[in-house]
Amino acid sequence: MLCQYFDKNVTKVVATLGWEQEYFLVDEALHQRATDLSTTGRTLFGAAPSERSAIGNHYFGSIPDRVTSFMREMEIEAHKLGIPIKNSSQ
């Protein structure tokens, strides 16, 4: 095995394939007011982040209950379609 050139203790390799997809949840009222979203279904216009904004606020902040509910429902529906959402290490 090729990986034994790097680590002699490797006896098995398990390959997985998954999709990494980011998505953004936008309230319907805000969606209707955003011309780019309502016309094209995509974000075309944006604004530069504020100087004090930190990426950690988005990834490590609390998740509102309604967002958690959406994510749970999406995971269930994706599972029904055979779309893997979590890999075996999660």
Characterize this entry briefly:
The protein is mainly α and 90 residues long.
Please give a structural write-up.
By secondary structure, the protein is mainly alpha-helical. The chain has helices at 28-33, 35-40, 55-60, 65-80. The two termini are 26 Å apart. The model has no long low-confidence stretch (mean pLDDT 76).
Number of strands: 0
Mean pLDDT: 76
**Secondary structure: helix percent:** 25-40%
- Class from secondary-structure proportions: mainly alpha
> How many distinct helices?
4
- The general outline is elongated
Biggest pleated sheet: none
Order of helices and strands: HHHH
Rg over CA atoms = 20 Å
Proportion of β residues?
under 5%
pLDDT < 50 stretches: none
Amino-to-carboxy terminus distance = 26 Å
